[in-house]
Specification:
This protein has helices spanning 17-26, 105-119, 158-164, and strands at 4-12, 29-33, 36-39, 54-57, 77-82, 93-99, 124-133, 142-149, 152-157. With 169 residues, the protein is α+β, with helices and mostly antiparallel strands. The strands form two sheets. The protein has a six-stranded antiparallel β-sheet with strand order 5-6-1-7-8-9.
Amino acid sequence: MANNYLEFSQVLPNLRAEEESWLTDQLVVVYVFGDHEYTEETLPEECDKSKADWLGPRVFRDLKDYTPDYDGWCGFEYAFEEGVNLGTKDWGRCFWVYAEERGEPEFVAHLVQKYLRMFRANEYWELSYAATCGKPCIGAFGGGAVFVTADGFEHMNDLDFCKIRLIPI
């Protein structure tokens, strides 16, 4: 049995304080009971978390395909960093998204699309990722990319690209 990984690393650079605050707020895990939304800190004692109508990061409440993980995992790791800690380019204060073992590029894209719509409507953002395997298993290696604007995002993995190439060049 081989281990499969989906890995990526990218930043939203040069954040202002209000942008960082918005991102933090969007990634808070919320528990929804009917019309009421609670965070871990505001959840009344009489509400049993396991009986929530919905749970997950606030940003995904409108995402049809989001299936909450047992703890509301957002589908990627993240940190707010000073960009000089992430290689040679100075990204300023940045939102770093990454996955070392498993990640959901389309979940990142959903968050970033909302962010761009809110703060940087004329900009775009891209994320590339690698699919790797702990052993040389056939078909277990590849990757893809996501391109995000304020209006939407497109995702293509290596298999989608190969299918397009079935058309004679």
